[in-house]
């Protein structure tokens, strides 16, 4: 394991890097939905996303530290973290087969809320009544988005909720690994474990795209993933996490624009209202965590 790269104080550049990372994450979802609707098996698309990211990570990180970048001080936790991220992607890509991208992303915005709840029993963090109230409000926002009482409720919502739970577990384990393994190790494990695990399933029912555009998108989806994680990591090196955390919510703008341009869909009124509630709750939780961090000694 190599030593982490020193941090810098370049907040504006950090925010721009995070905005670029979020855009690439949105391109991943858009590409996945487009490929699956074009007839490619969802598991193959998941494999392409991770295989491309793994190759990208190898090109970026191996020249910096060689194969010792794969050495982890907590391999079991890295394995669990990788499977949590993989589970999130599988659930999300299958959900995208049935649901608008704006709806899946609106549900995904509840990740900070679920992460806050999971941090209580797993990380032993203390969460005050105000943050618990914000969590409750956030879940009300999820209900507004999901509308389990409505006639248009779709069972694939449960796939999105599965993606949300897996992603929240992934972020909790990322916190647990902080200061233990460096970013290169974590990214190589996350993409490498997923690639190796999916290879037999993806190759078994492999189907080639019918168009040149399909080949291009299939090749690029993994590159989007690899570069997005690199950009997000750089953003956290250039600026404080508390500064760039709210940037993820610009994804609703990206998703709305790409959803309209690629699939000719727009978010429903309830999706927009629910997403606004979830975002408001997430921002409040972020502000409370930022205030508590300032009060901590040292």
Number of helices: 12
Radius of gyration: 19 Å
Total beta strand runs: 0
Largest sheet: none
Mean pLDDT: 86
Element-level helix/strand string: HHHHHHHHHHHH
Distance between the termini: 27 Å
How many structural domains are formed by the residues?
1
Strand content: under 5%
Give the CA-based shape: globular
Uncertain runs are none
Portion of residues within helices: over 70%
User: From the helix content, strand content and strand pairing, which structural class follows?
Assistant: mainly alpha
Provide an overview of this structure.
- Helix 2 packs across helix 9 and helix 6 packs antiparallel against helix 12.
- It is globular and about 50 Å long.
- The protein has helices spanning 11-37, 42-65, 75-96, 101-108, 111-123, 129-146, 157-177, 183-204, 212-238, 241-244, 251-263, 269-295.
- The longest helix is centred in the N-terminal third of the chain and has 27 residues, at 11-37.
- 76% of the residues lie in helices and 0% in strands.
- The two termini are 27 Å apart.
- 46% of the residues are buried.
